[in-house]
């Protein structure tokens, strides 16, 4: 009898778990794949910051100087980029915001 109760409990829990919401997979975008590819090359140069110029060449930004990576062209839009997690504690607050993510009060609001 005890074995039957355990078997019924397992069947009931299995049915409950299977009846949940459907899971889905979000495929990475072409943008995130390109950014990851460029970041791998930039981080090999010892930095996490880089910019893309008008000719779509990648320029790692380092304290010791910058130079174009001749072997790397990208489809990313011209501008500055950062690889990895972004620490926004020192970034000025956006419009209407009064505190940063870490709970500190904004220096000023734009």
Please tag this protein with its features.
110 residues; alpha+beta; 3-stranded antiparallel β-sheet; 3 strands; 28% helix
Overall structural class, as computed from helix and strand content, comes to alpha+beta
SSE pattern, N- to C-terminal: HHEEE
Q: What is the averaged pLDDT score?
A: 78
Distance linking N and C termini: 70 Å
Written overview of the protein:
- This protein is α+β, with helices and mostly antiparallel strands.
- It has a domain at 30-82.
- It is 28% helix and 10% strand.
- It has a 3-stranded antiparallel sheet with strand order 2-1-3, with helices on one face.
- A hairpin with a 5-residue loop joins strand 1 and strand 2 (58-60).
- The longest helix has 17 residues, at 2-18.
- The N and C termini lie far apart (70 Å).
- The mean pLDDT is 78.
């Amino acid at each position: 009898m005890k074995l039957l109760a355990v078997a019924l409990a397992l069947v009931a829990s299995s049915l409950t778990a299977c009846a949940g919401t459907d899971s889905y997979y979000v495929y990475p975008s072409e943008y995130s794949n390109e950014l990851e590819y460029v970041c791998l090359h930039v981080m090999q140069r010892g930095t996490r910051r880089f910019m893309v110029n008008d000719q779509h060449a990648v320029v790692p930004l380092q304290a010791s100087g910058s130079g174009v990576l001749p072997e790397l062209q990208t489809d990313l839009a011209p501008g500055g980029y950062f690889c990895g997690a972004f620490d926004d504690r020192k970034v000025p607050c956006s419009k209407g915001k009064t505190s940063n993510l870490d709970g500190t009060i904004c220096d000023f609001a734009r």
